[in-house]
Amino acid sequence: MARLSRIQLIDIPQHIIQRGNNRSLCFADEQDFAAYAHWLTEYSVKHCVDIHAWVFMTNHVHLLCTPRIPNAISLLMQSLGRRYVQYFNHKYQRSGTLWEGRFKSCIIEDVSYLLQVYKYIELNPVRASMVDEPSQYFWSSYQINALGKQSALCTPHPAYKDLGANSLDRQVTYQSLFRYQIAPSLIEDIRASLNKGLALGSECFKSEIEKSTGRRVREAKIGRPLGSCKNQEI
């Protein structure tokens, strides 16, 4: 099956994952995490990408971000990937690729879905049984978004800012989101959209994206079409 072309729309948030080659280690110690965070901060500013949430796991990373200029995310990930691989290969006296092909991404509707992706990303270490609470994992954005830790890397999305009138109110509301599990069906949708390069959102959102880009952003239907929406109304 042909790979769908990547969609990068200005001001539309995206969920990104990049894995180590064959799920191998891409962060071996705290210095590696810190180096990656430093260059992510540097290149996100250079290429005009707002970073809203992240988690750095030992063999992959998740980012939630919004591009502000055309092709910004590709430029960011290319610059970051090259710089970090050079560092990692030199430090560990290795050669060759570190990442598993190109990064995967999906665009996200900011109404109803975006904060769930924040939550999905920051709960990664909990799902991996590395910690009991997201606040216990240092290399994620949870301590910034939920506890008010300062970070040059984080740019709050408007959906996050709408959680409260001030920083403390936003943090308290954000913490409350983590009292409830993400629905298994939504976890499946998040993973499928990310791995297949589709859109995560309502059918109306997906239709608007397909109309504006001319590219399919939802699962292809199997079998013959059943007719127009008008003919199916009851």
Short description:
With 234 residues, this protein is of the alpha+beta class.
What does this structure look like?
The chain is α+β, with helices and mostly antiparallel strands and about 230 residues long. The protein has one domain (about 15-200): Alpha-Beta Plaits. About 40% of the residues lie in helices and about 10% in strands. A hairpin with a 3-residue loop joins strand 2 (about 50-55) and strand 3. Helix 1 (about 30-45) runs antiparallel to helix 2 (about 70-90).
List the defining traits of the structure above:
234 residues; alpha+beta; Alpha-Beta Plaits; five-stranded mixed β-sheet; 10 helices; disordered C terminus
For the record, the count of structural domains works out to: 1
Order the strands across the largest sheet as they lie in space. Answer: 2-3-1-4-5
Uncertain runs are 225-234
Provide mean pLDDT, rounded. Answer: 92
Percent of residues in helices comes to: 40-55%
The CATH architecture would be 2-Layer Sandwich
Specify Rg, calculated over alpha carbons: 19 Å
Largest sheet: 5 strands, mixed
- Strand residue percentage: 5-15%
Q: How do the helices and strands follow one another from N- to C-terminus?
A: EHEEHEHHHHHHEHH
- The overall strand count is 5
Q: CATH superfamily, called what?
A: Transposase IS200-like
- The helix/strand class is alpha+beta
Q: Can you tell me the overall shape?
A: globular
- What is the overall number of helices? 10
